[in-house]
Amino acid sequence: MRRVTVEDVARRAGVSTATVSRTVNGTARVAEDTLLRVREAIDQLGFRPNPAAQNLRQRRMRNIALVTPTMLNPFFPELVAGVHPELRARGYSLLVIDTEEPEREAVRAADSRVVDGVLLVASTGEARRSLQTPRDVPMVAIDRAPSMLEIDVVQCDNEAGAREVMQHLIGCGHTRIAHIRGPVGLDVATQRARGYQDALAFHGVPFDGRLVITGSFDEDSGFAAASALLTGPHPPTAIFAANDLMAIGAIAAAHQHGVRVPDDVAVAGFDGIHVGRYTQPALTTIVQPVADLARRAAELLVDAIDRRDTQPVRRPVPTVTQLPGRLAVRGSTVLPAPTWHGERPVRGRPAPHSDPTPAGAR
After folding, report:
1. Model confidence, pTM
2. Does domain 158-288+327-334 have CATH number 3.40.50.2300?
């Protein structure tokens, strides 16, 4: 049986083949009556567009690259898991690239013409030299703003999250709160450090620079920083680490030095990685809205790809979209409240505003 062609549809609808192509591809506006005639002809003839040819005409490969600096930090695999279904629902495949130079690799991926767009998680160590942002391959950054590219960014509201976790620690009675900050030059680390200082100032707690140590967003640096803080002459009563991995390292350091968490020192993090629910004790943290970040970044990227096919290519002023995180209070900052059974106190009830819900029940 002969395959129905665009020419067949055009003859049946009484329009040009270009009009049929515009209708099928959605690349330009078509008058309503013409649109109805073309769709009716398509239904009557059983026309099925060739996906490969359609993609070629639209200059699309149906691939999106997601470039990250590492997959060792559990936050990034969780981000990939959030992005993948969003793009799949829009008809795109996801290519994940793990590299020490994500910004440069993002540009190389765009220049390769193998992908239609790039999602980028910027690095902590790249030099501040600008790169030429590709004009016809859209790019969107997630979590971290790149230092070498001017592109849209979707991230958590890091300052507000840091202020919220500090509000919690101060509300628990802590005034000597240390901060293990992230790498210098990384925007999310700077934002969380700013939230830490803003909360101290708002509550009239003096800032002490000796309580701030820079880490590298991994467990080892959190362990080393907490060890230095806890063995110093005036140890803190609480530690706010700028990410969960450093907070987990800080809890391990406390155990190593015989310091009880949260009895002697409270520990809080930022990110909400899954494993934080299973530390001993479970980690208080700001949970980033991974699914919402992934959804918004995918929307921005695909919308930009669609505009490229229908409008003149231009580079708009980059925007920053910030979404709120959620404070999850767990055992690393709050002692279990006693419950009363007759005349005896019984330990074990979660503290007020805690987050004891098992992961599978959410």
Report:
1. 0.77
2. yes
